[in-house]
Amino acid sequence: MFGGELPLIWAILIATAVFLYVALDGFDLGVGILFPFAKDPRQRDQMQQAIAPVWDGNETWLVLGGGGLFAAFPKAYAVIMPALYLPIILMLLALIFRGVAFEFRHHGRNSGKKFWTAAFAGGSIGAAVAQGLVLGGFIQGIKVEDGRFAGGPLDWLTPFSLMVAAALVAGYALLGAAWLVFKTQGELFDASARWIKQLAVLVALAMGAVSLATLGVDPRVTARWGVSMTTVDWAAFLPLAILPIGAVGLCFIIWRGVWEKQHLLAYLCAVGLFLIGYIGLAVSLWPYIVPFAMTPADAAAADNALSLMLWGTVPMLPIILGYTAYVYWIFRAKVTEDGAYH
Amino acid sequence: MDLDALILARLQFAFTIGFHIIFPAFTIGLASFLAVLEGLWLITKQARFRNLYLFWVKIFALSFGMGVVSGVVMSYEFGANWSEFSAATGSVIGPLLAYEVLTAFFLEASFLGIMLFGWKRVGPGLHFFSTCMVALGTLVSAFWILAANSWMQTPQGFAIAADGTMVATDFAQVIFNPSLPSRLVHMVLAAYLTTAMVVGGASAFAMLKKRATAESGTALRMAVLMVAVTAPLQILAGHESGVVAHEYQPAKVAALEGWWTTGPQPTILFAWPDEAQGRNHLEIGIPGAGSWVNVGDATAELEGLDAFAPEERPPVFITFWAFRIMVAMGLVMLAIGWSGAVLWLTKRLDGASLYHRAVMWAAPSGFIAVLAGWVTAEVGRQPWVVHGVMRTADAVSPVAAGAVAASLLAFLIVYAIVFTAGAIYILRLMAKGPATEETPPESDQPPGTPLPAALREA
């Protein structure tokens, strides 16, 4: 059953898991990125409580991304991880700091508490930067010879990857601010609404810059979009033009204050923005799972392994999404201003 | 790949997984303990069970958090440091790890939210259900990870494909490989013992400090019962695991027993293995006992390390001593369990301050045994990463030694900070002990929140 389609099905499943990770852990990393801008400890407590019951489940999508890539595309996993070794390690260390800070902040006394407050912000920012470097290093391509990573330890460090890292920090901060508008009230709500307005502009600029720079990473990407420094191939570009137009539109309505109708809308629009970026990336890099070296079929595990996992994923994924949604529903209320839920 | 990068990668993996295993070993047992406490509270309505639950769930929250963050590291480290291993074995054990995420990690992570923050938000039945789901998740996770690791010890059900990678020929054989049953039982019992020793030690400490409440007495009795029953079972499970290892990994058994020459084998109580000379110094042993324990015949000729070429042998000194430390800790726990049971039956448990002191000092014995046991299993498997199929030296990533050295240093520093702080916070909670009126979280604040939010500084 499924036969030759298995690598493609799994590429779509892994891509979905990574997107769910970005959309979900993105907002709780974003709340951490905004931590230094909170007015006082009470606001920081509210911010953390807006994400405390769900962050662990959100981060599990990252484990599924890593574990799933190992299981479904071991050869891609075995190339990408060594190639992006240092930013991956940075990400893991940063996630350790922010993960334990959720509990440790409440156990630390004076200096301990200050330290874990800083660790939560620093860890969130560090994880976002590291993920941006991983993404940037991935997009610009990985040097592969004979199925193995054949580059140097700092290949990923380029102006392009630094720019992607900055853009991702801004993007996560937007998701975080939008989540806070959904989950908080009073002063913090007002502050978050201001942050959203500033971040919407920043993200629009950052996405534009990254998009233009991506066109230059490889001639295949330039040809796919039909846009180069000097010429535009309208036949190639026009069908894809909906993506940049949609992104600008979403940034605009977020900036205009879309949450005023329904507090969740800003977050949904921000997720839509990430989805557009994600689709744009897929358009640029298709059909590579390791740009520009391996396709899903090149990197896939044996068919029986892919098929065994699919038989588990088909029933498990709806169950997982079901109880994840249920937990979100239980904790749907806004955080009160004294730091507790209603 | 040069030797330095290999040694650094091995050190890093040993360090990160050694730190990681401490937390699952504790939280597997603690999650089950919490489920029992909450169940007892719902059935008996006795406040002491609720108080114990609310006290230990704070420690669970801290430990589980540290287990999660040190565990995320593992799922990326396979590829980052052991890419050749990952590429070769992905089609065989990859699905096992994927099933672990799908069936265990999401279950734990999602219901953990309700367990820690939902005390006032959901009914008692659903809260208990969430605790049970977290406990179930820890056990399911143990099953998959032990299946993958046991396959690396006793691989079967696979073939080598044209491109040199391994592919499964029968996943039932891969999962239910020969060493899985005994090793899974051995690990789960180890987790229960580890937790029981910590619970017993913390309760004994409270009783010694005269801060004892009814809660401490109850928890000490639960711990004594668990250890008294589980410690002997663990010795049997360990023995069974050794018998399987003797059949499939004779070099490992020869190393952990300290047998250099083939023949009827002793049980060595003390020795100083000398790998350069290929013999033991200062050996004290019981002749024939090794053969008798392993195959039931004191005169049976069993393979010593001389049956294996030097490059096929595991490091003897580490394996030998790690095994002895594990067994010694097992005997300590057995003594604690049975002497506690005798004191309990003779109604002297509450006033036995000498025993309380012993339980307190023995509290880390489970952790030490778990670490020593894993060192025995993993070092004893060397020089193989997949026993008999792939050497550790061939498994390492093409990453520069400098990058691995930098990351190892960073891990050392970060883990030292994070886990020292975590240990301090846990010990502080334990020193306080459970209160007779353990307050449920007023709101959905994290367990352990010491003061109302408005009063807190920083």
Give the assembly state of these chains: heterodimer
Radius of gyration of chain B: 23 Å
Spatial shape of chain A: globular
User: Strand order within the widest sheet of chain A?
Assistant: 1-2
Strand order across the largest sheet of chain B: 1-2
Helix proportion range of chain A: over 70%
Tell me the helix content of chain B: 55-70%
- Shape estimate of chain B: globular
- Largest two-chain interface: A-B, 79 and 85 residues
Low-confidence residue ranges of chain A: none
Biggest beta sheet attributes of chain B: 2 strands, antiparallel
SSE arrangement of chain A, N to C = HHHHHHEEHHHHHHHH
Helix/sheet category of chain A: mainly alpha
Q: Provide the residue-averaged pLDDT of chain A.
A: 92
Uncertain segments of chain B = 448-458
Mean pLDDT of chain B: 91
List the helices and strands of chain B in order.
HHHHEEHHHHEEEHEHHHEEH
Number of strands of chain B: 8
Helix count, DSSP H or I runs of 4 or more residues of chain A:
14
Q: What structural class do the secondary elements of chain B suggest?
A: mainly alpha
Give the DSSP E fraction of chain A (strand runs of 2 or more residues): under 5%
Gist?
The complex is a heterodimer of chains A (342) and B (458). With 342 residues, chain A is mostly helical.
Describe the protein's architecture and organization.
The complex is a heterodimer of chains A (342) and B (458). With 342 residues, chain A is mostly helical. Chain A has a domain at 3-186 and 289-330. Helices cover 74% and strands 1% of the residues of chain A. Chain A contains 14 helices and two strands; from the N terminus they run H-H-H-H-H-H-E-E-H-H-H-H-H-H-H-H. Chain A has a two-stranded antiparallel ribbon with strand order 1-2. In chain A, a hairpin with a 2-residue loop joins strand 1 (144-145) and strand 2 (148-149). In chain A, helix 5 (85-107) packs antiparallel against helix 6 (110-139). The longest helix of chain A is centred in the middle third of the chain and has 30 residues, at 110-139. The radius of gyration of chain A is 20 Å and the shape is globular. The N and C termini of chain A lie far apart (51 Å). The model of chain A has no long low-confidence stretch (mean pLDDT 92). By secondary structure, chain B is mostly helical. Chain B has one domain (7-444). In chain B, 69% of the residues lie in helices and 7% in strands. In chain B, the strands form four sheets. Chain B has a two-stranded antiparallel ribbon. A two-stranded antiparallel sheet of chain B has the order 3-6. In chain B, strands 4-5 form a two-stranded antiparallel ribbon. In chain B, helix 1 crosses helix 6 and helix 8 (250-257) crosses helix 10 (316-345). Chain B is globular and about 65 Å long. Chain B starts with a helix and ends in a 26-residue tail after the last helix. Classes of the chains: A mainly alpha (342), B mainly alpha (458). The interface between A and B is large, with 79 and 85 residues.
